[in-house]
Amino acid sequence: MTIALLFIFDIEAIAQKKDYKPGEKIEYLAATYPEELWEEGIFVGPSYDGSQPIIRQKPDQFHKGGFETAFHWNKIRPLGSGKVKPAPIPTKEIKNPEDETTPDTAPTVEGKGLMTKTEIIEYLKTRVGTDGPHPKKRKFQKNLLK
Fold first, then answer.
1. Shortest CA distance to 46 belongs to which of 66, 28, 72?
2. Which of 17, 72, 85, 120 is least surrounded, with the fewest CB atoms within 10 Å of its CB?
3. Which architecture characterizes domain 18-78 according to CATH?
4. In the chain, what are the domain boundaries?
5. 101: Cβ–Cβ under 8 A, 6 or more apart, which residues?
């Protein structure tokens, strides 16, 4: 039974190998989340026992010639054999109520120094209201601290 399973896995590994030539451009599976991302690379050759392909990834700031790594045979494919990516779905822009610009009226008390507790309460009642949280609460708090 064990020999049969090993034989089946070996046949699957052989079936996944293609006739890639060293230096041939291929695509490798770079990421799977949130969606599959296939990037272009170069097939360097098989590993010493032929169980894995060695590929050269695209160059970056750390590996000027590209980073060579072993992959799984089922995570590489010939260049251009993948599906075309669908167009991105347009999303509706959500507006933040704190970002809205509305003309603010000047405080009723100007230039007389610090506001008293009752003046602060009146200022907040006229601009923020008394019916629960206000979307511009933080903006008014910042103005009060000035």
1. 72
2. 85
3. Roll (2.30)
4. 18-78, 105-145
5. none
Summarize pLDDT for 101-131 with one digit per residue, the tens: 555 555 554 567 788 888 888 877 777 666 6
**pLDDT tens for residues 8-56?**
445 444 435 668 899 999 999 888 888 888 889 999 999 999 899 999 9
Residue-by-residue DSSP string for 78-108: ETT-SPPPPPPPP-PPPPPGGG---PPPPPS
- The per-residue DSSP string of 109-140 comes to S-SSSSPPHHHHHHHHHHHT-SSS--TTHHHH
By residue count, the chain amounts to 146
Distance CA(41)–CA(74), nearest Å, equals 15
